[in-house]
Amino acid sequence: MAALIIAVVGSGAIAGAWFFELVLGLKPCPLCLEQRVPYYIAIPLALFVALAAWRRAPRPVVLVGLVALALLMLWGAGLGVFHAGVEWKLWAGPTECTGAVDLGSGSDFMKRLQGGIVIQRCDEAAWRFLGISLAGYNVLIAGALAAVALIGAIATWVAPQRVRHGRV
């Protein structure tokens, strides 16, 4: 059940990110795009783990899958914490999307304008609700999914021991 929750909620989080990007027109910065990577890995893995549990795969397979999901979601939450800290100017972000804008020479600047290349800034939140940016909401979602995966892993680990000792 934990893996299925991660697949469904993770898919919802990615769908939400795509909605903000494609429907509302909020262009993601490089850190925003990087925060999606754990979800892109975790969603198919979660579906695999859910299928394995449903097919009664050996408990170690399910346990390892849930621990891997927890680590992926902790990685995602960590990326979100880093990005939110960059947005709040608590620490510096990547040079390609934070700090002073380097316009280069006049001819370089004109080439960039003609090429249409625009790098979204990582140190400015494109959207906030209740004072929390999308990076902050990613921390909450990924952290909650990591907790779900850990609870599922603990339940998977403890369940066989209860049965072995005659407790249910």
Task: Describe the overall structure.
By secondary structure, this protein is an all-alpha fold. It has one domain (2-164): Bromodomain-like, CATH 1.20.1550.10. It is built from 5 helices and 2 strands, in the order H-H-H-H-E-E-H. The chain has helices spanning 2-23, 30-54, 59-87, 106-115, 134-164; strands spanning 128-129, 132-133. It has a two-stranded antiparallel ribbon. The protein is elongated and about 65 Å long.
SS summary, helix count: 5
CA distance, first residue to last residue: 18 Å
- Write the CATH homologous superfamily: DsbB-like
The percent range for helix content is: 55-70%
Strand numbers in spatial order across the main sheet: 1-2
Low-confidence stretches: 163-168
In short:
The protein is mainly alpha-helical. The protein contains five helices and two strands, in the order H-H-H-H-E-E-H. 70% of the residues lie in helices and 2% in strands.
Lay out the secondary structure.
Elements (H helix, E strand, L loop, with lengths): L1 H22 L6 H25 L4 H29 L18 H10 L12 E2 L2 E2 H31 L4
Antiparallel strand pairs: 1-2
Helix pairs in contact: 1-2, 1-5, 2-3, 3-5
Features:
mainly alpha, disordered C terminus, 5 helices, single chain, Bromodomain-like, two-stranded antiparallel ribbon, 168 residues
